[in-house]
Design a protein that fits this description.
Elements (H helix, E strand, L loop, with lengths): L1 H20 L11 H31 L1
């Protein structure tokens, strides 16, 4: 939580700055290969966390 409070405003400021430089185009985040790889890796990690919980909840719903 503390890390989120410290890094949150910095991340928000840099996101706002990059969106201003790109005139609001979100594709700036996937122009460079390294940024695209990092975004895809983070999406894969989120999917690995969320999908098993979704399956477990779905299996419980169908058992009842």
């Amino acid at each position: 939580m503390l890390l989120g409070f410290v890094l949150g405003p910095l991340m928000e400021e840099n996101l706002r700055r990059s969106m201003t430089l790109s005139s609001g185009d979100p594709l700036i985040f996937v122009e460079r290969p390294i940024s695209m790889v990092l975004l895809l890796a983070s999406l894969a990690l989120i999917a690995m966390i969320v999908l098993p919980q979704f399956r477990r909840t779905r299996e419980q719903a169908f058992q009842e």
